[in-house]
Structures are given as C-alpha cells and as structure tokens.
Amino acid sequence: MRGMLDISNHCGGDDFQMEKSRIEWMGYDILGHKDEGIDNIVVRVNVSYQKIETSGEASGSCADKNLLRLIATATLNAVATLFSDHGVWYVEDVIPSQTGDTSYITVFVDRIHPRGSQKFIGSAFIKDNTQKAVGLATLNAINRILQIL
Asked: Using an 8 Å Cβ cutoff, are 46 and 79 in contact?
C-alpha cells in the first residue's frame, strides 16, 4: 500500500523504549483560601520521578492569575529537589487560552545554567481543573528538558 510505513521491526522488544522516564504529576494542595480572609497562600505540589516522590512549595498573593504562577513555581521547586545540579529554573509566563471550545494552558520556563539560558514551553488541555492543567503544562516543559540533559 502506498503511504504505509512498516514499523513492526522497530517496536516491541525488551530494548525498545518510546521515551525516557518522565516526571509525573501527583497532585497539589492550597493552604489558605481567599474566603478565609487570607491574602497570601502557599501552594504545595507533589511529583514523582522513577518512584521517588517529592514536593515543592511557592507562596504569594491569592489573586487568580498569580495562583496559576504559584502552581507552576511550586512544580518547578518540586523538580529542583530531584535535579539540584541542572541550573536554576523559573516561570516566565503562564497563559490560559482558548481555541473554539478547547481550553488549554501554556507555560514558559527558563533554565539558567553556567553556559547561558534556555527557554522551554509546555502545554496541557484544561479538562476540569485549571490548576492541574498548569502543573501538567509545567511538567510538559520540564520533561522536554529531561530529554536533553
């Protein structure tokens, strides 16, 4: 057949691996809420990498836009506990977007290291939880970094 590619000899065996290990999202907690009269909140994010679970925190204003940045930052802080020798990572921007009836999050991450800096982008669809989508988009960017480290 025209246009068909036979990959049967390239997939399957014990030595075949589709991708390297990825950092997995385990969840998040928000400590303090606007309705409790608290101006600042702490966000704790939990991640897992190769069966090692860790968490990171970020704190700041509870404004809606800042909450998204805090979740992305807490995610980076959790990752930093796993890879402390790979530079400093920070959130450049968190952008909620919509195309038609599909909502998604885009996160821009910068990595600064002795040889310079690199920018990475991650994205995730918003299914039913915007905060979770931010964490997943941040990990999407970080998992791209893992592919080149």
From this structure: no
Instruction: Report the distance separating Cα 94 and Cα 75, nearest Å.
Output: 13
For the chain, the structural domain boundaries read 24-146
Q: What is the pLDDT of residues 7-53, one digit of tens each?
A: 333 344 444 344 468 999 999 999 876 555 667 899 999 999 999 99
Q: Which of 88, 89, 102, 111 is nearest to 133 (CA)?
A: 102
Burial of 123 (0-12, 13-18, 19+ CB in 10 A): middle
3-class SS of residue 147 = coil
Are 124 and 142 in contact by the 8 Å Cβ rule? The answer is no
- Which tens digits make up the pLDDT trace of 82-120? 876 667 889 999 999 999 999 999 999 998 888 888 899
Domain 24-146 has CATH 3.90.1310.10: no
Torsion of CA 27, 112, 68, 107, to 10 degrees: -90
Write down the pTM of the prediction: 0.81
